[in-house]
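Consider the tokenized backbone below.
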């Protein structure tokens, strides 16, 4: 699947002076765009995703009064609820929350989760393989971003690096063909999958010998077009002609 490119995305992925959070957006698994942080900034109680993620990933003082199993049971209930009910929230927020619920269920059921009620500390880094550093609840939360990109099949349009997409996908030339045509750089980070036997997320790497002929052909095709055709004349070369859903941003 090749993601549709729309020039509307150009007002995102840029650093804007004099704002307290960097603007940015994610490409959802169906190829549409969703700016969860900017949407949450005007939504009641910070939206449907960020407070939820913070509550389960950094329980804080709740560690003294709740067990890991209680949190796990709550997540299991949320999974059922999110797949059987509708909520008065943006559908893309509900879907993103469901992806995070399924991710967090794996984290909480793992034997490696550290739940220290005396110190009120929860450290899931052994399970996630992601260090809980550089958190910023007002902006693009680094840990949330890493989880969405590495384990939930989202891609991040960077806010500090113009025309840059961070992904864990292997078939970048097919998926981001139209973005690369518009001079986007694709930055790959390791994909993480949950190993049921090890009970933790591990890096899943693709062997260079497993790269498809299609990917190699598209890479050379893009290289040739971008070197010979000016940016403003590349639209006819786009592979995806159909816009998926709508770009629902809060303006």
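A designed sequence for it:
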């Amino acid at each position: 699947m090749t993601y549709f490119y729309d020039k509307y995305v150009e007002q995102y992925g840029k650093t804007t002076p004099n704002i307290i959070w960097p603007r940015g957006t994610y490409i959802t698994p169906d190829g549409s765009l969703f700016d969860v942080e900017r949407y949450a900034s005007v939504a009641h109680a910070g939206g449907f995703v960020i407070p939820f993620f913070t509550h389960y990933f950094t329980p804080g003082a709740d560690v003294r009064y709740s067990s890991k199993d209680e949190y796990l049971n709550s997540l299991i209930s949320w999974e059922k609820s999110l797949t059987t009910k509708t909520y008065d929230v943006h559908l893309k927020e509900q879907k993103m929350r469901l992806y995070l619920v399924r991710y967090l269920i794996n984290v909480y059921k793992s034997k490696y989760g550290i739940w220290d009620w005396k110190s009120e500390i929860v450290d899931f880094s052994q399970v996630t393989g992601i260090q809980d550093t550089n958190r910023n609840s007002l902006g693009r939360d680094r840990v949330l971003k890493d989880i969405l990109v590495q384990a939930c099949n989202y891609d991040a349009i960077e806010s500090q690096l113009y025309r840059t997409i961070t992904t864990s996908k292997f078939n970048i030339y097919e998926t981001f063909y139209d973005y690369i045509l518009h001079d986007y750089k694709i930055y790959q980070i390791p994909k993480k999958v949950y190993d049921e036997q090890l009970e933790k997320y591990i890096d899943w790497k693709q062997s260079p010998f497993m790269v498809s002929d299609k990917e190699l052909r598209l890479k050379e095709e893009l290289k040739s077009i971008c070197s010979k055709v000016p940016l403003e004349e590349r639209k006819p070369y786009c592979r995806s002609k159909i816009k998926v859903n709508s770009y629902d941003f809060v303006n």
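The first strand starts at residue 25 and ends at 27.
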